[in-house]
Protein backbone atom coordinates (compact mmCIF):
# COMPACT_ATOMS: atom_id res chain seq x y z
CA UNK A 1 0.00 0.00 0.00
CA UNK A 2 2.72 2.45 0.99
CA UNK A 3 4.71 1.68 -2.16
CA UNK A 4 1.68 2.40 -4.34
CA UNK A 5 1.03 5.62 -2.42
CA UNK A 6 4.59 6.80 -2.96
CA UNK A 7 4.60 5.81 -6.64
CA UNK A 8 1.46 7.85 -7.31
CA UNK A 9 2.96 10.75 -5.35
CA UNK A 10 6.15 10.63 -7.41
CA UNK A 11 4.31 10.82 -10.73
CA UNK A 12 2.03 13.58 -9.48
CA UNK A 13 4.81 15.87 -8.17
CA UNK A 14 7.23 15.29 -11.03
CA UNK A 15 4.74 16.93 -13.37
CA UNK A 16 4.42 19.88 -10.96
CA UNK A 17 8.19 20.28 -10.85
CA UNK A 18 8.27 20.49 -14.64
CA UNK A 19 6.05 23.56 -14.78
CA UNK A 20 7.28 25.48 -11.72
CA UNK A 21 10.29 27.10 -13.48
CA UNK A 22 8.30 28.24 -16.53
CA UNK A 23 4.85 29.10 -15.13
CA UNK A 24 5.60 32.84 -14.95
CA UNK A 25 8.05 33.01 -17.85
CA UNK A 26 5.77 31.59 -20.56
CA UNK A 27 2.97 34.20 -20.33
CA UNK A 28 5.51 37.03 -20.07
CA UNK A 29 7.31 35.67 -23.12
CA UNK A 30 3.99 35.66 -25.01
CA UNK A 31 3.28 39.31 -24.37
CA UNK A 32 1.56 39.61 -21.00
CA UNK A 33 2.69 42.40 -18.72
CA UNK A 34 3.64 41.69 -15.13
CA UNK A 35 0.37 43.25 -13.97
CA UNK A 36 -1.61 41.07 -16.38
CA UNK A 37 0.22 37.97 -15.22
CA UNK A 38 -0.54 38.88 -11.59
CA UNK A 39 -4.24 39.15 -12.38
CA UNK A 40 -4.16 35.87 -14.27
CA UNK A 41 -2.36 34.08 -11.42
CA UNK A 42 -4.93 35.38 -8.93
CA UNK A 43 -7.68 33.46 -10.75
CA UNK A 44 -6.24 30.18 -9.50
CA UNK A 45 -6.37 31.30 -5.87
CA UNK A 46 -9.96 32.46 -6.17
CA UNK A 47 -11.08 29.18 -7.75
CA UNK A 48 -9.25 27.13 -5.11
CA UNK A 49 -10.84 29.12 -2.30
CA UNK A 50 -14.34 28.64 -3.75
CA UNK A 51 -13.97 24.93 -4.55
CA UNK A 52 -11.65 23.69 -1.81
CA UNK A 53 -14.26 22.66 0.74
CA UNK A 54 -16.92 21.33 -1.68
CA UNK A 55 -14.34 19.11 -3.41
CA UNK A 56 -13.09 17.80 -0.08
CA UNK A 57 -16.64 16.92 0.90
CA UNK A 58 -17.14 15.33 -2.50
CA UNK A 59 -14.10 13.09 -1.89
CA UNK A 60 -15.55 12.00 1.45
CA UNK A 61 -18.99 11.32 -0.07
CA UNK A 62 -18.04 9.75 -3.42
CA UNK A 63 -14.59 8.32 -2.79
CA UNK A 64 -10.91 9.21 -2.99
CA UNK A 65 -10.12 7.47 -6.27
CA UNK A 66 -12.65 9.18 -8.58
CA UNK A 67 -11.78 12.62 -7.19
CA UNK A 68 -8.04 12.01 -7.56
CA UNK A 69 -8.57 10.90 -11.16
CA UNK A 70 -10.81 13.92 -11.81
CA UNK A 71 -8.07 16.21 -10.50
CA UNK A 72 -5.61 14.74 -12.98
CA UNK A 73 -8.09 15.22 -15.84
CA UNK A 74 -8.40 18.90 -14.86
CA UNK A 75 -4.61 19.15 -14.75
CA UNK A 76 -4.33 17.85 -18.31
CA UNK A 77 -6.82 20.48 -19.46
CA UNK A 78 -5.00 23.24 -17.60
CA UNK A 79 -1.59 22.28 -18.97
CA UNK A 80 -2.88 22.06 -22.55
CA UNK A 81 -4.61 25.46 -22.44
CA UNK A 82 -1.56 27.05 -20.79
CA UNK A 83 0.79 25.65 -23.43
CA UNK A 84 -1.41 27.00 -26.25
CA UNK A 85 -2.44 30.33 -24.69
CA UNK A 86 -1.39 33.67 -26.20
CA UNK A 87 -3.76 36.11 -24.48
CA UNK A 88 -4.64 37.11 -20.91
CA UNK A 89 -8.10 35.55 -21.26
CA UNK A 90 -6.67 32.21 -22.39
CA UNK A 91 -4.13 32.15 -19.58
CA UNK A 92 -6.93 33.02 -17.13
CA UNK A 93 -8.89 29.97 -18.34
CA UNK A 94 -5.77 27.84 -17.83
CA UNK A 95 -5.20 29.10 -14.28
CA UNK A 96 -8.90 28.68 -13.50
CA UNK A 97 -8.64 25.03 -14.54
CA UNK A 98 -5.48 24.80 -12.43
CA UNK A 99 -7.47 26.08 -9.45
CA UNK A 100 -10.08 23.38 -9.96
CA UNK A 101 -7.32 20.79 -10.29
CA UNK A 102 -5.61 21.94 -7.07
CA UNK A 103 -8.92 21.97 -5.17
CA UNK A 104 -9.75 18.43 -6.31
CA UNK A 105 -6.19 17.29 -5.61
CA UNK A 106 -6.20 18.56 -2.02
CA UNK A 107 -6.58 15.48 0.12
CA UNK A 108 -7.91 12.41 -1.75
CA UNK A 109 -4.61 10.58 -2.29
CA UNK A 110 -3.40 11.09 1.26
CA UNK A 111 -6.83 10.31 2.69
CA UNK A 112 -6.90 7.08 0.64
CA UNK A 113 -3.58 6.01 2.16
CA UNK A 114 -4.62 6.85 5.72
CA UNK A 115 -7.94 5.00 5.27
CA UNK A 116 -6.01 1.92 4.15
CA UNK A 117 -3.65 2.15 7.14
CA UNK A 118 -6.54 2.46 9.58
CA UNK A 119 -8.28 -0.51 7.98
CA UNK A 120 -5.27 -2.83 8.15
CA UNK A 121 -3.18 -1.65 11.13
CA UNK A 122 -3.74 -2.15 14.87
CA UNK A 123 -4.75 1.10 16.62
CA UNK A 124 -1.54 1.33 18.64
CA UNK A 125 0.60 1.30 15.47
CA UNK A 126 -1.47 3.59 13.25
CA UNK A 127 0.18 6.90 14.14
CA UNK A 128 3.70 5.68 13.41
CA UNK A 129 2.69 3.97 10.16
CA UNK A 130 0.82 7.07 8.95
CA UNK A 131 3.73 9.34 9.95
CA UNK A 132 6.23 7.18 8.04
CA UNK A 133 3.99 7.10 5.00
CA UNK A 134 3.35 10.85 4.97
CA UNK A 135 6.99 11.74 5.64
CA UNK A 136 7.98 9.48 2.75
CA UNK A 137 5.34 11.21 0.63
CA UNK A 138 6.85 14.59 1.52
CA UNK A 139 10.33 13.33 0.62
CA UNK A 140 9.13 12.02 -2.72
CA UNK A 141 7.30 15.28 -3.42
CA UNK A 142 10.49 17.22 -2.78
CA UNK A 143 12.57 14.94 -5.00
CA UNK A 144 9.88 15.04 -7.69
CA UNK A 145 9.72 18.84 -7.74
CA UNK A 146 13.52 19.15 -7.78
CA UNK A 147 13.87 16.56 -10.55
CA UNK A 148 11.08 18.17 -12.55
CA UNK A 149 12.67 21.61 -12.25
CA UNK A 150 16.01 20.28 -13.49
CA UNK A 151 14.31 18.37 -16.32
CA UNK A 152 12.39 21.50 -17.33
CA UNK A 153 15.63 23.48 -17.53
CA UNK A 154 17.13 20.79 -19.76
CA UNK A 155 14.05 20.72 -22.00
CA UNK A 156 14.08 24.50 -22.43
CA UNK A 157 17.80 24.49 -23.26
CA UNK A 158 17.39 21.61 -25.73
CA UNK A 159 14.20 22.64 -27.55
CA UNK A 160 15.07 23.88 -31.06
CA UNK A 161 11.81 25.68 -31.94
CA UNK A 162 12.34 29.12 -30.40
CA UNK A 163 12.11 30.42 -26.86
CA UNK A 164 8.32 30.67 -26.58
CA UNK A 165 7.86 27.11 -27.85
CA UNK A 166 10.73 25.94 -25.65
CA UNK A 167 9.02 27.32 -22.55
CA UNK A 168 5.84 25.42 -23.48
CA UNK A 169 7.65 22.09 -23.87
CA UNK A 170 7.63 21.24 -20.13
CA UNK A 171 3.85 21.56 -20.20
CA UNK A 172 3.53 18.96 -22.95
CA UNK A 173 5.77 16.56 -21.05
CA UNK A 174 3.72 17.23 -17.90
CA UNK A 175 0.58 16.26 -19.84
CA UNK A 176 2.14 12.90 -20.69
CA UNK A 177 3.08 12.31 -17.05
CA UNK A 178 -0.40 13.25 -15.86
CA UNK A 179 -2.00 10.81 -18.30
CA UNK A 180 0.31 8.19 -16.81
CA UNK A 181 -0.91 9.29 -13.36
CA UNK A 182 -4.52 8.65 -14.41
CA UNK A 183 -3.73 5.13 -15.61
CA UNK A 184 -1.68 4.38 -12.49
CA UNK A 185 -4.46 5.62 -10.19
CA UNK A 186 -7.08 3.49 -11.94
CA UNK A 187 -4.87 0.42 -11.48
CA UNK A 188 -3.32 1.01 -8.05
CA UNK A 189 -5.99 2.72 -5.94
CA UNK A 190 -8.23 0.06 -4.40
CA UNK A 191 -11.28 1.51 -2.68
CA UNK A 192 -13.79 -1.22 -1.77
CA UNK A 193 -17.32 -0.16 -1.02
CA UNK A 194 -17.07 3.35 -2.46
CA UNK A 195 -18.45 5.03 -5.55
CA UNK A 196 -20.85 2.23 -6.47
CA UNK A 197 -22.77 3.27 -9.61
CA UNK A 198 -26.17 2.92 -7.95
CA UNK A 199 -25.09 5.09 -5.02
CA UNK A 200 -23.38 7.87 -6.95
CA UNK A 201 -26.41 10.18 -6.90
CA UNK A 202 -26.92 9.63 -3.18
CA UNK A 203 -23.23 10.28 -2.56
CA UNK A 204 -23.39 13.57 -4.45
CA UNK A 205 -26.46 14.64 -2.48
CA UNK A 206 -24.64 13.70 0.73
CA UNK A 207 -21.73 16.05 -0.02
CA UNK A 208 -23.25 19.19 1.66
CA UNK A 209 -24.07 17.20 4.79
CA UNK A 210 -20.55 15.78 4.83
CA UNK A 211 -19.10 19.28 4.58
CA UNK A 212 -21.30 20.58 7.40
CA UNK A 213 -20.39 17.69 9.66
CA UNK A 214 -16.69 18.12 8.94
CA UNK A 215 -16.92 21.82 9.79
CA UNK A 216 -18.72 20.96 13.05
CA UNK A 217 -15.93 18.56 13.96
CA UNK A 218 -13.44 21.40 13.69
CA UNK A 219 -15.63 23.81 15.68
CA UNK A 220 -16.15 21.24 18.44
CA UNK A 221 -12.46 20.37 18.78
CA UNK A 222 -10.02 22.85 20.29
CA UNK A 223 -7.11 20.83 18.89
CA UNK A 224 -8.46 20.80 15.33
CA UNK A 225 -9.20 24.52 15.55
CA UNK A 226 -5.64 25.14 16.75
CA UNK A 227 -4.24 23.09 13.88
CA UNK A 228 -6.29 25.22 11.48
CA UNK A 229 -4.73 28.28 13.13
CA UNK A 230 -1.31 26.80 12.40
CA UNK A 231 -2.23 26.64 8.72
CA UNK A 232 -3.40 30.26 8.74
CA UNK A 233 -0.09 31.48 10.18
CA UNK A 234 1.88 29.11 7.95
CA UNK A 235 0.15 30.49 4.86
CA UNK A 236 1.14 34.01 5.92
CA UNK A 237 4.72 33.05 6.70
CA UNK A 238 5.29 31.05 3.52
CA UNK A 239 4.99 34.25 1.50
CA UNK A 240 8.19 35.39 3.23
CA UNK A 241 10.32 32.61 1.77
CA UNK A 242 8.37 31.62 -1.34
CA UNK A 243 7.61 35.07 -2.75
CA UNK A 244 10.14 37.35 -1.06
CA UNK A 245 13.28 35.27 -1.64
CA UNK A 246 13.82 36.31 -5.30
CA UNK A 247 12.98 39.91 -4.36
CA UNK A 248 15.52 39.77 -1.54
CA UNK A 249 18.15 38.31 -3.89
CA UNK A 250 17.47 41.03 -6.44
CA UNK A 251 17.91 43.60 -3.68
CA UNK A 252 21.30 42.16 -2.74
CA UNK A 253 22.54 41.43 -6.26
CA UNK A 254 21.18 44.61 -7.78
CA UNK A 255 19.86 42.76 -10.83
CA UNK A 256 16.67 40.72 -11.41
CA UNK A 257 18.17 38.55 -14.14
CA UNK A 258 21.00 37.53 -11.82
CA UNK A 259 18.50 36.79 -9.08
CA UNK A 260 16.48 34.61 -11.46
CA UNK A 261 19.59 32.66 -12.48
CA UNK A 262 20.36 31.97 -8.82
CA UNK A 263 16.78 31.02 -7.92
CA UNK A 264 16.57 28.13 -10.42
CA UNK A 265 19.26 25.86 -8.95
CA UNK A 266 18.57 27.17 -5.44
CA UNK A 267 14.92 26.07 -5.69
CA UNK A 268 15.87 22.60 -6.94
CA UNK A 269 18.43 22.24 -4.15
CA UNK A 270 15.92 23.48 -1.57
CA UNK A 271 13.34 20.85 -2.50
CA UNK A 272 16.06 18.19 -2.47
CA UNK A 273 17.01 19.21 1.06
CA UNK A 274 13.31 19.25 1.94
CA UNK A 275 13.04 15.62 0.87
CA UNK A 276 15.93 14.69 3.17
CA UNK A 277 14.35 16.55 6.08
CA UNK A 278 11.04 14.76 5.59
CA UNK A 279 12.83 11.40 5.45
CA UNK A 280 14.19 12.06 8.94
CA UNK A 281 10.71 12.39 10.48
CA UNK A 282 10.40 8.73 11.59
CA UNK A 283 13.77 8.96 13.35
CA UNK A 284 12.71 12.14 15.17
CA UNK A 285 9.40 10.61 16.22
CA UNK A 286 11.17 7.60 17.73
CA UNK A 287 12.78 9.97 20.24
CA UNK A 288 10.23 12.77 20.69
CA UNK A 289 6.47 13.27 20.45
CA UNK A 290 4.82 14.77 17.39
CA UNK A 291 3.85 17.86 19.36
CA UNK A 292 7.38 18.44 20.64
CA UNK A 293 8.88 18.02 17.16
CA UNK A 294 6.22 20.29 15.65
CA UNK A 295 6.92 23.08 18.14
CA UNK A 296 10.68 22.92 17.50
CA UNK A 297 10.33 22.77 13.71
CA UNK A 298 8.05 25.83 13.59
CA UNK A 299 10.45 27.83 15.74
CA UNK A 300 13.44 26.71 13.66
CA UNK A 301 11.69 27.55 10.40
CA UNK A 302 10.73 30.98 11.66
CA UNK A 303 14.33 31.58 12.76
CA UNK A 304 15.73 30.58 9.36
CA UNK A 305 13.41 33.01 7.58
CA UNK A 306 14.41 35.79 9.97
CA UNK A 307 18.05 34.93 9.20
CA UNK A 308 17.34 35.32 5.48
CA UNK A 309 16.02 38.80 6.19
CA UNK A 310 19.14 39.69 8.18
CA UNK A 311 21.64 38.12 5.75
CA UNK A 312 24.22 40.52 4.39
CA UNK A 313 24.71 38.79 1.03
CA UNK A 314 23.15 36.37 -1.47
CA UNK A 315 25.06 33.38 -0.09
CA UNK A 316 23.44 33.91 3.29
CA UNK A 317 19.99 34.09 1.70
CA UNK A 318 20.52 30.85 -0.23
CA UNK A 319 21.85 29.06 2.85
CA UNK A 320 18.83 30.31 4.79
CA UNK A 321 16.52 29.09 2.04
CA UNK A 322 18.04 25.61 2.20
CA UNK A 323 17.68 25.58 6.00
CA UNK A 324 14.06 26.73 5.72
CA UNK A 325 13.17 23.93 3.33
CA UNK A 326 15.07 21.38 5.42
CA UNK A 327 12.26 21.61 7.97
CA UNK A 328 9.40 22.64 5.65
CA UNK A 329 8.16 19.25 4.41
CA UNK A 330 8.94 17.54 7.71
CA UNK A 331 6.77 20.03 9.57
CA UNK A 332 4.00 19.58 7.01
CA UNK A 333 4.04 15.79 7.25
CA UNK A 334 3.72 15.82 11.04
CA UNK A 335 1.01 18.48 10.96
CA UNK A 336 -1.04 16.39 8.55
CA UNK A 337 -0.57 13.30 10.73
CA UNK A 338 -1.98 15.23 13.69
CA UNK A 339 -5.00 16.19 11.59
CA UNK A 340 -5.61 12.58 10.57
CA UNK A 341 -5.55 11.46 14.20
CA UNK A 342 -8.46 13.75 15.00
CA UNK A 343 -11.00 12.74 12.38
CA UNK A 344 -12.63 9.56 11.05
CA UNK A 345 -12.40 8.39 7.46
CA UNK A 346 -15.86 9.79 6.55
CA UNK A 347 -14.56 13.37 6.92
CA UNK A 348 -10.82 13.03 6.41
CA UNK A 349 -10.66 14.74 3.01
CA UNK A 350 -13.06 17.45 4.19
CA UNK A 351 -10.84 18.35 7.14
CA UNK A 352 -7.76 18.38 4.87
CA UNK A 353 -9.62 20.80 2.62
CA UNK A 354 -10.53 22.97 5.62
CA UNK A 355 -6.83 23.10 6.52
CA UNK A 356 -5.95 24.09 2.98
CA UNK A 357 -8.67 26.74 3.05
CA UNK A 358 -7.18 28.19 6.23
CA UNK A 359 -3.84 28.53 4.48
CA UNK A 360 -5.19 30.53 1.51
CA UNK A 361 -6.46 33.61 3.38
CA UNK A 362 -3.25 33.53 5.41
CA UNK A 363 -1.27 33.67 2.18
CA UNK A 364 -3.44 36.44 0.77
CA UNK A 365 -2.97 38.49 3.94
CA UNK A 366 0.75 37.78 3.79
CA UNK A 367 0.95 39.07 0.22
CA UNK A 368 -0.72 42.34 1.22
CA UNK A 369 1.09 42.92 4.50
CA UNK A 370 4.55 41.70 3.55
CA UNK A 371 4.29 43.41 0.17
CA UNK A 372 3.57 46.69 1.93
CA UNK A 373 6.46 46.16 4.37
CA UNK A 374 8.83 45.34 1.50
CA UNK A 375 7.75 48.47 -0.39
CA UNK A 376 7.83 50.86 2.57
CA UNK A 377 10.88 49.41 4.34
CA UNK A 378 12.77 46.58 2.60
CA UNK A 379 12.33 42.97 1.45
CA UNK A 380 14.60 41.95 4.33
CA UNK A 381 12.25 43.54 6.85
CA UNK A 382 9.29 41.73 5.25
CA UNK A 383 11.10 38.41 5.64
CA UNK A 384 11.76 39.14 9.32
CA UNK A 385 8.06 39.82 9.91
CA UNK A 386 7.09 36.64 8.06
CA UNK A 387 9.58 34.57 10.05
CA UNK A 388 8.20 35.85 13.34
CA UNK A 389 4.64 34.95 12.26
CA UNK A 390 5.79 31.45 11.31
CA UNK A 391 7.29 30.95 14.77
CA UNK A 392 4.09 32.21 16.43
CA UNK A 393 2.34 29.03 15.25
CA UNK A 394 4.44 26.90 17.62
CA UNK A 395 2.33 27.40 20.81
CA UNK A 396 -0.81 26.27 18.99
CA UNK A 397 0.49 22.69 19.00
CA UNK A 398 0.25 22.74 22.81
CA UNK A 399 -3.54 23.19 22.81
CA UNK A 400 -5.45 20.36 24.47
CA UNK A 401 -9.04 19.23 24.46
CA UNK A 402 -11.14 19.62 27.59
CA UNK A 403 -14.51 20.74 28.90
CA UNK A 404 -14.76 22.89 31.97
CA UNK A 405 -12.15 23.17 34.70
CA UNK A 406 -9.90 20.24 35.21
CA UNK A 407 -11.60 18.23 32.50
CA UNK A 408 -9.57 15.38 31.07
CA UNK A 409 -8.33 15.64 27.53
CA UNK A 410 -10.88 14.04 25.20
CA UNK A 411 -11.28 13.53 21.51
CA UNK A 412 -14.39 14.92 19.83
CA UNK A 413 -17.12 12.48 18.85
CA UNK A 414 -16.61 10.86 15.45
CA UNK A 415 -19.07 9.51 12.93
CA UNK A 416 -19.26 5.77 12.65
CA UNK A 417 -19.53 3.90 9.37
CA UNK A 418 -23.31 4.16 9.42
CA UNK A 419 -23.30 7.92 9.78
CA UNK A 420 -24.24 7.94 13.48
CA UNK A 421 -22.31 9.53 16.32
CA UNK A 422 -20.05 7.30 18.35
CA UNK A 423 -18.68 8.27 21.77
CA UNK A 424 -15.24 9.83 22.18
CA UNK A 425 -13.95 6.68 23.85
CA UNK A 426 -14.38 4.77 20.59
CA UNK A 427 -12.52 7.34 18.51
CA UNK A 428 -9.00 7.03 17.21
CA UNK A 429 -6.84 6.02 20.15
CA UNK A 430 -3.76 8.06 19.28
CA UNK A 431 -3.40 11.06 21.56
CA UNK A 432 -2.28 14.58 20.74
CA UNK A 433 0.87 14.52 22.87
Automatic annotation (TrEMBL):
GO terms for cellular component: plasma membrane. GO terms for molecular function: transmembrane transporter activity. Its main location: membrane. It holds the Pfam family MFS_1. It is found in: Cell membrane. SUPFAM superfamilies: MFS general substrate transporter. It is a multi-pass membrane protein. Residues 1-403 form the Major facilitator superfamily (MFS) profile domain. The chain crosses the membrane at residues 6-26, 38-59, 136-159, 171-189, 223-241, 261-281, 288-311, 351-374, 380-399. Keywords: Membrane, Transmembrane, Transmembrane helix. This is MFS transporter. It comes from Aeromicrobium endophyticum.
Amino acid sequence: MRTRFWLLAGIRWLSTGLIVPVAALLPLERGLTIAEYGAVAAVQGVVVLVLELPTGGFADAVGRKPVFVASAVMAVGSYAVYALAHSPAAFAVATGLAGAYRALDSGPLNAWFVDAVHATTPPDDRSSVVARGLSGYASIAGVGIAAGAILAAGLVAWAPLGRADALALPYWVAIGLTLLQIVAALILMDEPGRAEPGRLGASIRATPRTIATGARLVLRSRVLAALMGVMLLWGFGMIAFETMTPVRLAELLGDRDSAASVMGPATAAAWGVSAVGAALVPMMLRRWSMVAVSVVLRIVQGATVVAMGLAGGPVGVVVGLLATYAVHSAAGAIHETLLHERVGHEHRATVLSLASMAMHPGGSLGLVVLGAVATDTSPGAAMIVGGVVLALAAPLFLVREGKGRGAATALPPMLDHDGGIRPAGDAVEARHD
